[in-house]
Structure formats: C-alpha cells, structure tokens
Write a structure and sequence with these properties.
The protein contains twelve helices and 13 strands. The chain is an alpha/beta fold.
Length: 480
C-alpha cells in the first residue's frame, strides 16, 4: 500500500508501545500516512493450461498434475466439516501458515519468461510475441526492463483495470493510463531468487487478485472475504462498518488460535483500525519475525510485511529491495525449527497495471454490498476476479515438479485456514475458493523436508534498521 500519497507524517504512523519489537497502532498516524479483432490487437495465448510458454507456436509440457477433489462449496457460516465442531484441527500436519503478500505485479510481468506455467509466447529467437495496441493503433511488444526500477508508474485502479480487461479481450493495457510501460517485464537476470523459488516449489499460474481494483480492497478480501463496497486505496474506508461476519483474525480469536501481523511500516490488519488498535500486541515489527522464526516460535497464522514505502515492490520502488526482503523471509522459514510443519504462501495483492494475457474468470459475489461505483466509473460488481499475480506455495509438503492450474485468489488463504481449523466461511467468496491443498502432499514423506538451496537475491546491500536493503537503482529504467 503506497502511503506516500497520504502525506509526510511517516514518523507518526506507529507509536512505540514500549514492548521491544512490538508497536501500537496510532489512529492519527494511520490516517496521515495510510473476439478476432480484439485478439489481434493484443496477441496472446489465453487457453494454455497444460504447458509452458511456446517458441514459434510450440509448447513444452513441464507440468506434473495430480487428481484434485471437487471443490468444497460452502455458504457463509458453513464449516468445512459440519459433523465436527468449529475449531477442530482437520490438518494436523500443518501447524504454521505464513503469508508474504507483496504488491503490484502481474504473472506475465514477473514470470512471463520463466518457462514454467502459462507465460509469454516466444518467437524462434526466444523473444515474447505478445503485443497490445496503443491509442494510435500501433502494436507495443512486450519488452525487457533493463534494471530493477520500472519504466513508468502503471495504473491499476478500477477504471484502468476495466480498460485493460476490455470484457475479456485483455487488449487495453497500453490504451489505459499505464501506457507502453505496461508491456515491460523482468526476468531471471533481475529476479534470480524469485525465479529459483518458482522453479523449485509449486507455482500457481491461475492465482488471480480477488477483485479488479487496488491494494486496500484486495487486502480486505485476503482477511475478510469481501471489500464491503470498497474499490480504492483511500483512508476514508477506515470509517466503514466492519464486515458482518468479521475477519479471519476474529475467527481465530474465538478459539485462542495464535496470529500475528509482522510489519515494518503499516499492518494490513490496520484496515480495520478499531480492531487493530485493540490488538496492538499482535502487530509486532518485521524484525521480530526473524527472531521468532529462529526460535521456533511462529504463530499458527501470520502475515509478514516489508517497509511498504521501500520494499513492497510497488512502483516506482526498486523491486530488488522487495525480492531481498522476501528471500530473507523464505530462508528464515526454511531454516526455522518450525519448517517441518509450515506452509508459506508468497503472492501479490494485484497486478499493478502491468500486462497479463489471461482473462480473469467469473467468481461469486461475496455478499450483498456492491462496489461503490462513482459517476464516471465503469459499472461492475464483485462477480469477477482481478488479474493474475505471481504466487508460489513453499512448504516441506510441497509437490515436486508441480504447477497448479487450479483457480485461486486471495480468499484461498481463508479457505486453507478454514479447512485446517474447521472454521465457517465468512462470505460466499471464501466459501467458493479452493484451499491450496492441491499443491501439497500431506500423506507421504515430505518432499522438501530438507530445505532446498535457492539462488540468492540480486540485492545484497546492507540492511537498514528495519531490515530493508539499500537500492540498486533510483531512476526509472528507460523505455526501449
């Protein structure tokens, strides 16, 4: 969440509570800081779900599939197993669920060149053939961004996203306020740790944002299964009524199940400000996460968040800083005494205005609150997922050589927690969501019980006090 737009009072965001490594949430601080023609216009292959990127139209099968049970559909208030009481542990093999949600990148923007999953279509020279037409009708081809700073500041708001989507044609990226920079991408030379992560553990190539909007609504879906009408990353939402069925943290609270939101700047739980203020002891600093991981004291559920002004990978940040932060988190978990019973989910809140060739599918409307569409906004509902984002499932139980082609969104995190603890669905959306277990083998010997060695992150600069590495670039990468 880019809080720079909310003013300079960064020092007021979190008020020291006196407990080392933990902070209380300051209201003042948070408020201050906190079709044939169409396909020709945007050439891509949107139907590939069983193979990787192609060269000159060919494809290279690399996907190990597994039998996935039919999705368990639940109405709001319905438990995963109605025959057992709420709070029953249905997945005892898993004791810790960790979420690292970074910001603002599409699947193609990061993993179009991965060679695993449904990425770019390549020509005989190994270059992406994917294009989108600009306002003048001329095609703009996907291009490599030369350093780890973006080429411009793409737009991912409700209006821009609907232009980019164009009723499923996925051809409006360059015509949107994102402009030609929407077609930029990074590859393994820029993101060696992320490429190693996605080549080793299960890659989810059908993980979509929860709605076609910005950071705040998508993070509300992550923890509540609904955005309660919100479409924007603006502080007026902090006065909105709470979701009628609460958040996943409140469901965990009912059974004294531990959770923490480790953060270096602003916690996602702060989107429900009154609740966050009442639970300041559960909002430790990000540095505390590394201490807890090393000591084997991770909670049952946690979110780990970087300094969102410097290392969340939101434009115009140097993405190498965010990759370095994520690498620290993943390596800390793999070296933790808790590793043998942990599932870590690495993903992004939304696509950031960058190109992706796969149209998002329809999804259930979560509740009775429609999007707060204003005059001049495109009409719409929460009846469709947002665009694809990078996502990898990291666990000793992870399936080897596996690419998940199951549709997921952020409420799949809720579904996993609800499955584990037999909790009721919060909304129709998390009641519909898949629970991520297709990427896990919970019956045999864990394939990654001995953690693999992953490639180091590109950025190895010294860490600041809050754990943020230094920048490798400061200027936007030039357009080709």
């Amino acid at each position: 969440m880019d809080v720079r737009r909310y003013g300079p009072a960064v020092s007021e965001v979190m008020a020291d509570s006196g407990d080392e490594g933990r902070r209380g949430l300051s209201r003042r601080g948070f408020l201050a800081a906190s079709a044939a023609a169409a396909l020709a216009a945007c050439s891509s292959s949107t139907n590939s779900t069983t193979s990787t990127r192609g060269v000159s139209g060919s494809t290279t099968p690399q996907v190990t599939t597994t039998s996935v049970p039919p999705r368990r559909r639940r109405a709001p208030g319905e438990r995963w197993d109605p025959s057992k009481p709420e709070g029953t542990d249905l997945l005892p093999q898993i004791e810790h669920i960790v979420v690292v949600m970074q910001e603002n990148h599409s699947f193609d923007n990061y993993f179009g060149m991965l060679g695993r999953g449904d990425g770019f279509t390549l020509d005989s020279a190994g270059r992406p053939t994917n294009t989108c037409n600009g306002a003048d009708g001329g095609p703009v081809r996907a291009f490599h961004i030369s350093n780890t700073c973006p080429t411009n500041n793409p737009s991912q708001n409700w209006n821009s996203t609907h232009t980019q989507w164009n009723h499923g044609a996925m051809d409006g990226f360059v015509r949107s306020p994102s402009g030609p920079g929407a077609m930029g991408y990074w590859d393994g030379t820029n993101l060696p740790f992320y490429y190693s992560l996605a080549e080793t553990f299960p890659l989810c190539d059908r993980w979509f944002a929860s709605c076609m909007a910005q950071t705040y609504p998508n993070r509300q879906f992550l923890l509540a299964g609904t955005a309660r009408g919100n479409l924007r990353t603006t502080l007026d939402i902090l006065s909105d009524p709470p979701p009628p069925n609460g958040t996943i943290m409140q469901a965990l609270d009912r059974h004294s199940i531990s959770w923490l939101d480790y953060h270096a700047f602003l916690p996602t739980v702060g989107l429900w400000l009154d609740y966050a203020q009442a639970n300041g002891a559960k909002l430790p600093t990000a540095n505390r996460f590394f201490v807890d991981a090393a000591a084997g004291k991770l909670p049952a559920f946690c979110i780990v968040e970087p300094n969102s002004e410097l290392a969340s990978e939101e434009n115009p940040q140097d993405i190498s800083r965010g990759e370095a932060f994520s690498a620290r988190v993943v390596n800390a978990v793999m070296q933790s005494p808790n590793w043998s019973r942990t599932v870590l989910i690495w993903c992004y809140d939304e696509h950031g205005g960058y190109y992706d060739h796969v149209a998002p599918p329809a999804a259930p409307i979560p509740d009775s609150v429609p999007p707060n569409v204003r005059p001049g906004d495109p009409s719409g509902a929460y009846d469709r997922l947002g665009f694809r984002v990078p996502a990898v499932i990291v666990s000793p139980f992870a399936r080897k050589n596996y690419v998940s082609q199951v549709v997921h969104d952020h409420t799949s995190v809720l579904a996993l927690l609800e499955h584990k603890f037999n909790l009721p669905a919060l909304t129709h959306r998390d009641g519909w969501a898949d629970d991520l277990t297709d990427s896990l083998d919970l019956s045999g010997t864990p394939a990654f019980l001995t953690p693999p060695t992953l490639s180091p992150a590109l950025n190895t600069t010294p860490l600041a006090a809050d754990g943020t590495p230094g920048a490798l670039c400061t200027d936007l990468s030039p357009m080709p």
